[in-house]
Amino acid sequence: MIGEVRSQLRRSLHFGAWVAAFLIPLGSVIWIDRARIERIEVVSAQPPWSVSDTARMSEIGAPRLIISCLNDEGLVWTDQTRQMITSGTPRLRYLDYENAPFGVALDSPSPYRWWLGAMALVCHAISGNSIVAAIDQAALIADPLLLLILLASSFSFVAWRSGILCGAVFWFSSIMLFPFAATFFPGIPTDQGLALCCVLWSVLPLIYAGSGRVSGRWTLFFAGIAGGAGLWVNVADQVPILVGIGIGALLSMVISRTATKHPHFDASEAPSWRIWALGGAATTLLGYLTEYYPNHLGSWELRTIHPVYGLAWIGGGELLVRASAVIRRQPDAWKPRAIVGLVLAFSMLAALPATMWHIKSLGFLATEPSMNRLSKLADAPNATSTLNWLTKEGFTQTASTVLIPTLFALPAVWLLMRVATHLRQRCAIAVALGPLFTALPLALVHLRWWSGFDVTLLPLVVLVTEALSLSAKPRVAYWIWFPSVAAVLTLCLSQSLPVRAKNSPNTLTDYEVAGWAERDLALWLELHAGTNDAIVLAPSHTTIALHHYGGQKGIGTLERENHDGFQAAVRVLSATTDEEALDLIQRRGITHIVIPSWDNQLDFYARLGIGQIEGTLLDRISRWNIPLWLRPAPYPFPTIDGFAGHSILIFDVVAAQDEATFYSRLAEYFVETNNIGAAASVSKILNRFPGNVGALAARAQVAAAQNERNAFSHLIDTMLPLVNQSAIRRLPWDRRVAVAVLLARAHRYDLAQTAYALCVADIDGTKLRSLSYSSLYHLLVLGKSLHSSIEDPEMQELAFELLPREVRARFTN
User: Fold this and answer.
1) Which residue, of 75, 263, 516, 622, has the fewest CB within 10 Å?
2) Per-residue pLDDT reduced to its tens digit, 669-696
3) pLDDT tens per residue across span 89-105
């Protein structure tokens, strides 16, 4: 009776341990993700300042959530998913919003778009929201859900094979190791998380192959399938891991040579790497056909999945089989048939580097700017190498959370070299160490690979935990290993918590303000451009953000398919003459040049063109020596705590202006942006046009801004004899408005009435959009004071809509 009670109590405790080991990490993941989602909602709830209200986003179907602050990848994936769903094209092969107006051919694989799109359709079906809103929701849950699926499956597998203790250590390590955990944070959807899932499952089953606890053939075949899926998702992340698995397999073979001396090891249980290779090659071919059949099979693009990877994989697997025979000194290892097989296997493996050399492609070795970022977070370190990062920033807390977990490999190496360790465990550790040996050098060169390195650590953590727990001295595990793991993971956890500004939870960080500004700018451009044909020349991230939030097209992104657009942006910005720049701009149909002060990427573009910034178009713009076909637009950028001093320069590409009009508009721009010193300098240039009404009006505006009443009165007196209907009609429409407002300010309401009537008589949407917000506001105030208004109700509504929210509120009140 007592024995039955004890047995039942033991089973209950075992079940309770399973539940606790499962729910505690699960609750931690949900808590961290919920905190980050709440933070995204706080940032996204900030209203736009340059348009009337948030209803504008709903009108144009623009995303509301401010995600991926200063991170291109999340915006790119959501935009591609939106185009995939709205166009009904499951395999997206063309983007019209990059390299405008020509577009780009897209070769990136589809699995992650399908995952994100499936989440969006589920959200759409449940909530009934629009597809755009559903994709916003999917961006918040897609990667966290992917992590939960990965953890649930891998935890169950590890706990089944190695016990609940190893499963718990594995799960806690998975959710705390940084930057791996950051790969799955909400609001930054990228394919890296899906790629790392495939990487983990391409390694994890292999540590149990030949263990006697699981069917080795099926385990190898499944690991091959996972590796093939990883090639489909991202060859750059998966190929080095496959190479590492091969290295680990060879190391395992060397160690297993002592099998004949070990009483509990059957050499027939050694993994058959041929099955592993066949599973991976078959999956690679299936993924390639699914992705590109039937219209895109002729491409030799090796930066994505291609059958040549499967061919090389088969060759590599066969070489491992032959190597095993040689290492084990099997009698048939050097027979003619075996030698022929060895040559064929080597030829298949060599097909990959030979093809890369023949087509002059780096293939899976190609680098992208995102590989220099440690994680997807906005404030993540960005450097050309780990050494460069440490040199610039020192051994910071972030550096410690990244580098200290590398020490987990030391106990694994010790157990590998320790003869007393069970041979099966030594072989498993050898296989797991192989991917780590390839991931670590890559992480030292590319910061992004530290996430991949963390993935290779996870199987080692499991094996070390298992070996130490089952050793003759388990105290080592309980008093050294477990506390060390807990301390390191606690340190890593600090990096996973959402960052808030120091002053208040509702105060935004610089990165969040930049995201907020880009969303507002996109809405402002969409409203003021008045057309879907707006094409912007801006830094890569700004270009992507403007399309994401406002639908504007661009040319100068750093996406790998956009080589032509990138070259065009470089040529425009580095043009040494205004005529050359205008010719290039007109070929591309560029309508706006956007220069945010917090992103100096355009400097890099200009310098890349001629080796220096001096003498380029960008240099002339920065010195305000701008050509006559550019017109600065006074975008109302507010003063924000912690973000003071930043601004956004916007230039409209217009028909060539006469000098009087050009400098008049430039003076007005400087007045409206409160740059009175620059306005005064331009006013001196306008002295060259003493008989031009528009120039006199601009000079009077500058005098008023300087509070120089005598100068203002003198300029008004000089202008009045020149003001008549004929003179006003000859002025560009925006200059008519300036004259009308100025006359009212000088209390010449009779002439102001005439000028106002001429303005309203031929008003249209294009002319209204050409006005600055200040000029538009004063025009409406003038109409109200003259008891007149814009007769066309559509134009009246558009005029109010063009006003910033705060300015409109002042007018209506």
Assistant:
1) 263
2) 999 888 999 999 999 999 999 889 999 9
3) 999 999 988 998 999 99
Average pLDDT for residues 487-511, to the nearest whole number?
A: 70
Q: How many CB atoms lie within 10 A of CB 619?
A: 18
- The DSSP bridge partners found for residue 264 are none
Q: Residue 129: its pLDDT value, please?
A: 87
Q: Helix axis angle, 423-445 relative to 386-393, nearest 10°?
A: 60
SS3 for 216-245 is HHHHHHHHHHHHHHHHHHCHHHHHHHHHHH
Give CA 732 to chain center in angstroms.
43
Pairing mode, strands 592-596 and 648-653: antiparallel
DSSP state, residue 28 = H
State pLDDT tens for residues 112-138: 999 999 999 999 999 988 898 899 999
**What one-character DSSP code corresponds to residue 133?**
H
DSSP string, 565-579: HHHHHHHHHT-SSHH
Token pair for 623: 């010195």
Residue in the block written with tokens 């209200």: 53
Nearest C-alpha neighbor of 404 from the set 467, 487, 462, 323 = 487
Coil vs helix vs strand at 593: strand
Comparing 56 with 292, the larger pLDDT belongs to 292
Nearest in space to 158 (alpha carbons), one of 563, 599, 459, 592:
459
What is residue 13's predicted lDDT score, i.e. its pLDDT?
Answer: 44
What is the identity of the amino acid at 311? L
How many whole angstroms separate alpha carbon 349 and alpha carbon 308? 9
Query: What's the per-residue H, E or C state across 287-334?
Result: HHHHHHCCCCCCCCCCCCCCHHHHHHHHHHHHHHHHHHHHHCCCCCCC
Greatest mean pLDDT range, 9-13, 544-548, 802-806? 544-548
CA dist 801 and 813 (Å) reads 16
Q: Is the pLDDT confidence value at 147 over 60? A: yes
Tens of pLDDT, residue by residue over 371-413, are: 899 988 878 888 999 999 999 998 888 899 999 999 999 999 9
Alpha-carbon span 707 to 145, nearest angstrom: 61
Find all residues with CB under 8 Å of 323, minimum gap 6, and list them. 250, 253
C-alpha span between 178 and 380 (Å, rounded): 11
d(CA 29, CA 16): 20
> ∠ at Cα 234 (599, 118), nearest 5°?
90
Classify residue 451 by burial, with Cβ atoms within 10 Å: 0-12, 13-18, 19+: buried
Longest CA–CA span in the chain (Å) reads 116
| Residues 246, 321: Cα–Cα separation, whole Å | 11
Please report, for residues 110, 134, 586, the alpha-carbon distance to residue 85 in angstroms, rounded to integers and kept in the order given: 12, 11, 32
Whether the CB-CB separation of 651 and 633 falls below 8 Å is answered with: yes
How does residue 299 score in pLDDT terms, banded at 50, 70 and 90? confident
| 596 sits in which H/E element | strand 592-596
Cis peptide upstream of residue 435 (ω within 30 degrees of 0): no
Burial class of residue 703 (count of CB atoms within 10 Å of its CB; 0-12, 13-18, 19+)? buried
- 503, pLDDT greater than 50: no
- Reported confidence tier of residue 295, pLDDT bands at 50, 70, 90: confident
CA distances from 632 to 432, 653, 811 (A): 59, 9, 25
Whose CA is closest to 91, among 65, 117, 125, 129? 117
Cα distances (Å, whole numbers) of residue 309 to 205, 283, 437, 755: 21, 11, 21, 73
Task: Identify the bridge partners of residue 428 per DSSP, sorted by sequence position.
Answer: none
pLDDT, residue 30, reads: 84
- pLDDT higher than threshold 70 for residue 464: yes
DSSP letter (8 states) at residue 266: -
Instruction: Quote the CA–CA distance of 496 and 31 in Å, as a whole number.
Output: 11
The continuous run of DSSP H or E covering 135 comes out as helix 131-162
CA dist 13 and 19 (Å) reads 10
Residue 71 scores a pLDDT above 80: no
